[in-house]
Design a protein that fits this description.
Elements lengths: L1 E4 L12 E3 L2 H8 L5 E3 L2 H33 L2 E6 L6 E6 L1 H10 L15 E3 L1 E10 L2 E11 H35 L1
Parallel strand pairs: 4-8
Antiparallel strand pairs: 1-2, 1-3, 5-6, 7-8
């Protein structure tokens, strides 16, 4: 019995293949489960037409994914995390944090599309692949920076601000006390 496979069947063939199987296997399993159709000339012609439509649609999807991959590849994400003195992070950078950093740059991606081999547990620059389609993968640059450096800069700025603020406050406090005592 000659059949056209409508989907991949392990050990038999891929979708669109014309295969020859025993009658019982075709009639009792493949055709009732929707995995194959009879290979009549009409069915072959119809199947090839549907296949060409699906391939055209697939080309459009791949082209759109490649365009998006070009946009995503230009994005660089900077993530600040607490780190020890030797550059090891307290915790790790997760896919959710990468998605949030991308979202702040205006790029929407599902976190399951980020293909991290292992968690990021140190400071530095990393190339992270993002699988947009089975044939299209983009890479983004993720830079992990220690949050301690940012805090030190802020503390230095706030100490200077506190010094300038404390001097006028102490003078005004002395002025407030003077009228009370008199």
């Amino acid at each position: 019995m000659k059949l056209l496979l409508k989907e991949d069947v392990e050990g038999l063939g891929d979708c669109g293949d014309e295969v020859t199987v025993k009658d019982g296997y075709g009639r009792n399993f493949l055709i009732p489960n929707g995995k194959a159709i009879l290979a009549t000339p009409r069915n072959v012609k119809q199947f090839n037409h549907q296949k060409s439509i699906v391939q055209a649609r697939l080309k459009k999807v791949v082209a759109a994914a490649q365009g998006r991959a070009g946009e995503i590849s230009q994005v660089t994400c900077v993530i600040t995390k607490k780190a020890g003195e030797q550059g090891k992070l307290f915790g790790s950078v997760t896919t959710q944090e990468i998605v949030e950093a991308l979202r702040s740059k205006g790029v929407e991606i599902d976190r399951r599309k980020i293909q991290m081999k292992e968690a990021i547990k140190s400071l530095g620059e990393f190339q992270i692949p993002i699988k947009l389609h089975q044939d299209v993968t983009a890479e983004i640059k993720v830079i992990v920076v220690a949050a301690v450096e940012v805090k030190k800069e802020k503390e230095a700025g706030t100490e200077e601000a506190e010094k300038t603020e404390t001097a006028p406050e102490s003078e005004s406090a002395d002025e407030d006390k003077a009228p009370e005592e008199a």
